[in-house]
Write a structure and sequence with these properties.
The chain is an all-beta fold and 296 residues long. It has a domain at 151-294: Cupredoxins -  blue copper proteins (Immunoglobulin-like, Sandwich). The chain has one helix at 124-127, and strands spanning 2-3, 12-15, 18-33, 36-43, 49-55, 59-66, 75-77, 102-108, 114-119, 133-139, 148-157, 170-173, 183-186, 197-199, 204-211, 217-221, 226-231, 234-235, 243-244, 246-249, 254-260, 266-271, 289-294.
Amino acid sequence: MVITPDIPDLPFTVEEGMKCFVLVAEPVTRELLPGIKMKGWGYNGSIPGPTIRVKQGDWVKIRVINHLPEATSVHWHGLDIPNSMDGVPEVEPTPKIRPGEYFDYCFQIMNAPGTHMYHTHHNTVTQELMGLGGGFIIESGCNDYIHRDYFIMLQEFHLQGLPKGELRKGDYDLDPLTDSFNFFTMNGRCFPYSNSLPVKYGENIRIRLGNIGMNAHPIHLHGHQFLLTAADGNEISSSARLLRNTIEVSSGTTYDLLFCANNPGTWPFHCHMPHHISNNFTKPIGGMFKTIVYEK
């Protein structure tokens, strides 16, 4: 089972054999650090939105309800679905979802198991950088060799009115029309206000990474080497897998990393861009940073 630390899964009901989800686009206040909150846009009270977990062959209906002050849509990033369900209303036969209205995206999961995302595809320049995105995972029915399976969404934000180099408690508006970001998140939180990734010695650990932001993020694992096992939701054949300890996750991409927990300790797992592992350019480690922690 895939776990998204700090982010819930999206629940579903089953109606006539179809998995039915409800995704609500709405203003969301997300606490990045204790007392430091950003006023963004998300889904079901969360930035990033809740993770959608399905299986190959499932029929799904995802009702998207718009509680935003403007029209929106949802694109199912990397999924092979009908054109009318793809969620780009400017060029496809799919509607804009106006405030107070909803649209039912209905399709069958045709892709093989893998890591994907969903995100807005209307007024993208504003809406994505207000937080409108989440994980979409097609799970396999057989993962006996994977002991723990984590998903991490990479995002970046500019909180307005917070002087550089300072951390003051408060609720801050976002500026989505700048590339001068001051907070960098894994699953909507900044280090140290984020959950670690627990492991046990000898376990095989998969970490799935997704990025819908502006910047590329070279994600680096300390103390271990990992195999790059999938890209954009597509499995890489065993003979072509690269042994790495750093992978650049550019915008719009997902990667699956697999490593054996064979070196006990507390190990950093973080973006290697120096500005991206600080909180508003303060000195302590922060931002896009987690720890791998061995359990006894």
